[in-house]
């Protein structure tokens, strides 16, 4: 399959999983470190998260094929996006995926920084490709970024660990 088709599929799957993560956190509330929706949760989040791990490998592969290695220091917004995507892969994903790490408030706060940037830049670039001129405007994209981050933050707040129970 041509890389361009894989890129398109990756974009669709990315938004499916982005909305899925948010919905799962709203529908199946839990706190990181108290339990694992993958190991101990109901079937829907268990299947969703296991499937998302497979997708994440595909997503990282396509991103690497599209963008390559990050340029340091970043000089353009696209460079920042690429550096941040690698930070999500190397920092956010392990902290969110390993219950002992996700139980620590400081690590979760650190993990959310590159993820929030990644989410914002995904909205920015997605709507830059919109067929509707009004959604391509910078003002509309900023509003959409704020809305998406607010919805995502709402899901994140309820899963944020209550205490730093593993740092004694």
Name the assembly state: single chain
Pattern of helices and strands:
HHHHHHH
Distance between the termini: 51 Å
* Strand segment count: 0
Low-confidence stretches: none
Number of helices: 7
Helix content: over 70%
Outline type: globular
Strand content: under 5%
Report the mean per-residue pLDDT as an integer. Answer: 88
Biggest beta-sheet profile: none
Structural class: mainly alpha
Radius of gyration of CA atoms, rounded to a whole number: 17 Å
What does this structure look like?
This protein has 168 residues and is mainly alpha-helical. It is 74% helix and 0% strand. It has 7 helices and no strands. The chain has helices at 3-27, 43-67, 77-97, 99-102, 105-128, 133-136, 138-159. Helix 3 (77-97) packs across helix 5. It is globular. 18% of the residues are buried. The mean pLDDT is 88.
Short description:
The chain is mainly alpha-helical and 168 residues long. The protein has seven helices and no strands.
Topology:
Blueprint lengths: L2 H25 L15 H25 L9 H21 L1 H4 L2 H24 L4 H4 L1 H22 L9
Features:
168 residues; globular; single chain; mainly alpha
């Amino acid at each position: 399959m041509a890389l361009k088709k894989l890129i398109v599929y990756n974009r669709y799957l990315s938004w499916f999983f982005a909305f899925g993560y948010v919905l799962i956190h709203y529908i199946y509330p839990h706190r990181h470190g108290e339990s694992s929706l993958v190991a101990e949760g109901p079937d829907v989040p268990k299947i969703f998260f296991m499937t998302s791990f497979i997708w994440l490998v595909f997503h990282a592969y396509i991103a690497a094929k599209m963008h390559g290695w990050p340029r340091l220091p970043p000089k353009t917004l696209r460079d920042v996006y690429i550096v941040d995507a690698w930070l999500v892969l190397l920092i956010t994903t392990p902290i969110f995926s390993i219950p002992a790490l996700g139980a620590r408030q400081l690590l979760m706060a650190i993990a959310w920084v590159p993820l929030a940037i990644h989410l914002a830049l995904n909205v920015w670039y997605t709507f830059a490709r919109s067929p509707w001129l009004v959604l391509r405007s910078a003002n509309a994209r900023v509003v959409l970024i704020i809305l998406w981050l607010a919805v995502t933050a709402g899901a994140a707040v309820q899963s944020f660990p209550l205490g730093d129970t593993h740092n004694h």
